[in-house]
Design a protein that fits this description.
By secondary structure, the chain is an alpha/beta fold. The chain contains 24 helices and 19 strands. It folds into 5 domains: 233 residues, Rossmann fold; 60 residues; 159 residues, no CATH class; 121 residues, Dna Topoisomerase Vi A Subunit, Chain: A, domain 2, CATH 3.40.1360; 63 residues, no CATH class. About 2% of the residues have low confidence.
Length: 665
């Protein structure tokens, strides 16, 4: 059975009911702070709390702006706070059909509405006709009884029909059984009541976890025992006695098979400590399966009194949790003073492993089919640790549906945006929840954009070998030139080398640092200004780049002195000037008004792009309002419509360039 939709509201900041589709595995609520993500989770939690502690309270939960008018009708006509729709899987459908002789079809759904007076209404539709047909085929019935049953439209009608005929003993026995079956329910459709009886015991319930449920560094066990006793004596006020930190420690003790009363009984200290330590070791191992930030951590437990401490820690034994870091020679620190991320992860495992047994403070057994509601999980985790935690959520989703909130791009699978629901707080409307990403505020979907950007970056740099260039012009020229060199019988750029435009020489250092950290092989090709580039020299000195992997355009300008720095050069200077001017004139033919720029028009200089810009200035020709010309427009024209072949000198230059890059990488 899966939750497939939740209709929430009016509830707190949700002024109008929001119908939200729920994914069968994981649903992600993305939105800004105070948008209403937690409100949605809290509504679900109150509807079907697995621990049985949550209730709807109009004073706390009904939208405040309409509270007064609502309370006038609350007693007689309470509104729906949450409506949940579930879908059965085929195994459950087959079981019901077999047990009750129904003919429920695949994809069967039903709904439950939870009202503000904490009652509920069931919406379920089951045809009684197949059940009536099965009853009519009961062996031993008289022909009159069979005929009466077949006339009936409902089970209650069948009961009335049988009461109006002459019956034999078998008919009377059948009638008695049918009467008992019908009288169990006050529903008009008895079969629907019986189906609900099957479903109600298997209904998934909600478990909510947030930062408030973290384990404390220490807790007084005598005080905890008193609180548990008070909770048992007054279950209606149990939540006032048992706060989240107490519940977290009770969960840890329960997992260790330790009763709170053991600390005041005959059970020895070593036995109690051994039990709790065993669970702590097991949980630490589970954490480290997904926690890859520091695998030298472990949780230690101690149980001892301290008469010198402040109340209540000076009365009876205290439970102490500490984290040992083997990386720092076994230094231990209090649990609640360590990394917030590790604390969250460990506390979550304690909470989840324990509440699967579903025990409230008074010890009553609860339900074990769960929908997990996680409020900002992994918020304190490093970005890569959040990616690790996503793997853990996927593991949880194998057995339980998970709904979680986030505004971190690293807590969203960019290839599963169908699982995302955006949450916005709109003026005069309140919280709005939707799967329509295109119509959402840019600030709301920023985490999704960032997630996509990260995914794009990862896919762009998946090659083991990467050539960093300054911009898209270099990318266009190199790809086209490589194809032309290969067509002439030479060797182009190796196929497994990815060309990465970084947006200028100033960004090279950043890209080298980021990509090099991923263990990728890098080379750099840059324009040459006529003097050494200090940033690149710094990368070489820091051993982030090998000197043999850094190239500039001037080193390939003269085929007779390959590898030697010469005059200031751009990649455009590796082409024959006449060829380059031909593409320039083609791109800007309209602006040039039929008067192309010739090589003889160019002033003296080393770099053709600057020579062209100076010629345009001299001729007072504006090909674009800002002056100069768009270098990439010429590169794009070259790459989309390259020449049939290059001259021998140009081929020699690019052949040498590609050979050098391939060798360096």
């Amino acid at each position: 059975m899966n939750l497939i939709s939740a209709k929430v509201g009016p509830f707190r900041s949700i002024n109008a009911a929001q119908d939200v589709d729920i994914d069968r595995d994981v649903t992600v609520l993305v939105g800004m702070n105070e948008a209403g993500k937690t409100v949605f989770l809290k509504a679900l939690h109150k509807a079907q709390d697995a621990l049985g502690r949550e209730k709807f309270n109009p004073t706390d939960d009904y939208p405040r702006k309409d509270y007064t008018s609502y309370m006038r009708r609350h007693a007689e006509k309470p509104e729906t706070a949450v409506a949940l729709t579930y879908q059965l899987d085929q195994e459950e459908i087959d079981e019901i059909n077999t047990d009750l002789n129904t003919a429920i079809k695949p994809g069967f759904t039903f709904s439950i509405s939870y009202l503000y007076n904490n009652s509920k209404t069931i919406s379920i539709n089951v045809d009684e006709a197949p059940v009536i047909a099965a009853l009519a085929s009961t062996s031993g019935l008289s022909s009159d009884a069979v005929a009466a049953i077949k006339k009936a439209l409902t089970l209650r009608d069948a009961l009335d029909q049988l009461n109006g005929i002459d019956r034999n003993d078998a008919d009377d026995a059948f009638l008695a059984d049918l009467k008992a079956q019908v009288e169990k329910s006050d529903w008009a459709n008895v079969v629907q009541y019986e189906v609900w009886g099957h479903l109600s015991s298997k209904l998934p319930k909600f478990l909510y976890f947030s930062d408030y449920d973290l384990l404390p560094g220490k807790l007084n066990l005598k005080d905890l025992a008193t609180r548990v006793a008070n909770a048992k004596a007054d279950s209606n006020n149990a939540s006032k006695q048992i706060q989240p930190k107490h519940q977290a420690v009770l969960a840890l003790l329960r997992m260790a098979d330790v009763d709170i009363g053991d600390f005041s009984g005959s059970t020895g200290y070593e036995e109690l400590k051994a039990k709790v330590e065993a669970v702590s070791i097991s949980l630490t191992d589970q954490v480290l399966e997904f926690w890859k930030q520091n695998e030298d951590l472990e949780v230690e437990v101690d149980i001892r009194p301290d008469a010198t401490d402040e109340a209540p820690f000076n009365d009876g034994p205290n439970l102490y949790l500490r984290i040992k870091n083997r990386r720092h020679r076994g230094v231990t620190t209090p649990f609640d003073q360590r990394s917030r991320g590790f604390i969250w992860f460990f506390s979550f495992l304690v909470w989840f492993d324990s509440v699967q047994q579903q025990l409230d403070p008074s010890g009553a057994a609860k339900h074990n089919q769960l929908v997990l509601l996680l409020d900002e999980p992994g918020l304190a985790l490093h970005a890569l640790a959040q990616a690790d935690f996503l793997r853990y959520i996927d593991a949880l989703a194998e057995d339980h549906q998970v709904i979680y909130t986030t505004h971190s791009p690293f807590m969203v699978h960019s290839d599963r945006l169908h699982q995302v629901r955006v949450v916005e707080d709109k003026a005069t409307i309140g919280t709005v929840i939707s799967d329509n990403l295109s119509g959402s505020d840019a600030r709301t979907i920023f985490p999704l954009q960032a997630a996509l950007g990260w995914n794009l970056a990862q896919n762009l740099f998946i090659a083991k070998r990467n050539l960093l260039v300054e911009g898209p012009s270099e990318l266009a020229y190199l790809q086209a030139a490589s194809a032309l060199v290969e067509a002439s019988g030479g060797k182009g750029l190796p196929e497994d080398v990815t060309i990465v435009p970084v947006g200028g020489l100033n960004n090279v250092a950043t890209f080298v640092s980021l990509l090099g950290a991923n263990g990728l092989d890098l080379a750099v090709l840059h324009d040459y200004s006529g003097k050494p580039e200090q940033k690149l020299d710094g990368l070489i000195q820091q051993k982030l780049l090998a000197k043999k992997s850094v190239f500039n355009a001037s080193q390939f300008r003269d085929p007779a002195s390959i590898g030697q720095d010469s005059v200031p050069s751009d990649i455009e200077d590796l082409f024959n000037p006449v060829l380059y001017l031909g593409y320039f004139n083609k791109v800007y033919a309209k602006a040039l008004n039929g008067t192309p720029i010739l090589e003889s028009d160019l002033p003296a200089g080393d770099r053709i792009v600057y020579r062209i810009e100076r010629a345009l200035e001299t001729k007072k020709i504006n090909v674009r309002p800002s002056g100069g010309f768009n270098h990439y427009a010429v590169a794009a024209a070259f790459s989309t419509s390259p020449p049939e072949q290059l001259d021998s000198d140009t081929l020699a230059r690019f052949n040498a360039l590609f050979e050098a890059i391939g060798s360096a990488l």
